[in-house]
Amino acid sequence: MTITGARQRQERFTVLQKWVSRALAGNLSCLIVPGPEVALSHGLDVTAAGMRITATPRDASMLLIIGELSEKMNEAVAVLYAQMPRPRAIVNLGGQTPSTLPDADFSAGVSQAGLIDAVDWLKRALAKGAFSDSPEDFDAPVLHARIEYVCPMHPEVVQNEPGSCPKCGMDLVAREAGEPAPEHDHGHDHREHRHHEHEHQHH
């Protein structure tokens, strides 16, 4: 029973590492994808299962994926996972693990029982210091591009992490930074300007 998203470079598990792992086991936090509202819609009570919900990947020990994700969300979730501190675990309830991620540490159907089993597994793994001996460094093509999150209704609202629009409350949508915005047609004005220049030359 090991956590793939953990790193252990030393031959023996030190006393300090054991203490840290046990502390983590007693204070689990999860980042829910696509979002907490999806967990609620499936009747999942994350707090009752023994975890707190966090909105930022840097504060999460578990990436909880619920159901199937869209192609865009598959890319976004790879970025979120890369930002999570080690040790980190992937739990998938009711869907396939996105191809942009390593295999899930725990998979089950979408149910409160499945969620509780996942949390119990992670607590035991952390308490025992179940670090993978030689985890591969996580990499995905999307990590070489910066992802930003924008509001579909208010494109001026751009954030570096997922969340809700402060203006309308809609979920922000992931996109690759630098994607071209719709261009306005300046051609008419340019042609009009050249026409005036031509008339000026004749005068």
Which value, in Å, is the CA radius of gyration? 23 Å
Based on the structure, what is the oligomeric state of the protein chains?
A: single chain
Question: How far is it from the N-terminal to the C-terminal residue, by CA?
Answer: 87 Å
Structural class: alpha/beta
Overall pLDDT level: 76
Number of domains: 2
Biggest sheet, spatial arrangement of strands: 2-1-3-4-5
Assigned CATH class of the largest domain: Alpha Beta
Low-confidence stretches: 131-136, 180-203
Number of strands: 8
Report the sheet with the most strands, covering strand number, pairing sense and barrel closure.
5 strands, parallel
CATH fold-level label of the largest domain = Rossmann fold
- Please trace the helix and strand order, writing H or E for each element: HEHEEHEEHEEEH
If classified by CATH, what would the architecture of the largest domain be? 3-Layer(aba) Sandwich
Helix content: 25-40%
Number of helices: 5
Proportion of residues in extended strands: 5-15%
Question: How would you describe what is shown here?
Answer:
The chain is of the alpha/beta class and 203 residues long. The chain has two domains: 15-127, Rossmann fold (3-Layer(aba) Sandwich), CATH 3.40.50.12280; 145-183. The protein is built from five helices and eight strands. It has helices at 15-25, 36-41, 71-83, 112-127, 187-202, and strands at residues 29-33, 52-53, 62-66, 89-93, 106-108, 147-150, 158-159, 173-176. The protein has a five-stranded parallel sheet with strand order 2-1-3-4-5. The termini are far apart. The model is unreliable at 131-136 and 180-203 (pLDDT under 50).
